[in-house]
Amino acid sequence: MAENEVPPKAGDPTPPQGVSQVSATPAQGAPPSSAPMAVTNVPGKVAAAGAGYDEFGTAKRNLPPAMPVAIAIVLVAVVVGILAYVNRAKPAAQGTIDGAWFSMPSNMSSPMILVEVTLHNVSEKTLYIKDIKADVMTDQGDLSDEAASAVDYDRYLSAYPALAGHSAPLRVEMKIPPGGVLKGSVMISPSVSQQQFDARKDLTVTIQPYDQNPIVLHEKAAAPK
Q1: Contacts of 134 (CB under 8 A, 6+ apart)
Q2: Which domains does the chain have, with CATH numbers?
Q3: What predicted TM-score, i.e. pTM, was given to this entire model?
Q4: 155 φ, ψ to 5°?
Q5: Quick check: 72 and 80 in contact, CB under 8 A?
Q6: Which of 124, 97, 121, 125 is nearest to 188 (CA)?
Q7: Residue 23 pLDDT > 60, yes or no?
Q8: Gyration radius of the chain's alpha carbons
Q9: CB 112 within 8 A of CB 163
Q10: Alpha helix locations (H) across 31-187?
């Protein structure tokens, strides 16, 4: 047995012949092991390493910058406003109130008002009149009435002769071709006195065509106050 050889203990497996057992103790004079040593966590260094990075999942990393978003919202609002203005509902016709006359003979219990109007069809479709009414705005409120039927005009003009000599009545179902002009009269009988009529704030005639927005005509001259 060699001088440094450790005798085997009882029960230890016998090494194969020719193979010497080497002591686990490092030989004298052997240099220290160069294996890397485990590095413990150093809080200061970890914090310094992470200072240059943003954590994903935070608002700073997930949300877009505020200024481009605000500019985009303003641009979208402008585009929507332009489209709404271009595609807005346009009147099918334009017109004027050319005159208004009041009559109440002493033998009649209610007044009659005749309003003369002119309509211009500015659309590309033929307009068909569905309904006609008129309103007198007074200090006591608005007084409205449906237009008298054209078939009753002769009877009304006989009872109110001061209203004769004006345009023929506008009739329901009358048509106005594209670019056409129609002149006619509207007769109403609201509960208004001569004084209220003379001091009216406004006078309107509303003509409702089929499948179109109503055409509202205001008195062309300001009513006396």
Answers
A1: 113, 115, 144, 145, 147, 186, 188, 203, 204, 205, 206
A2: 93-218 (2.60.40)
A3: 0.59
A4: -65, -45
A5: no
A6: 97
A7: no
A8: 51
A9: yes
A10: 43-50, 59-62, 66-86, 153-159
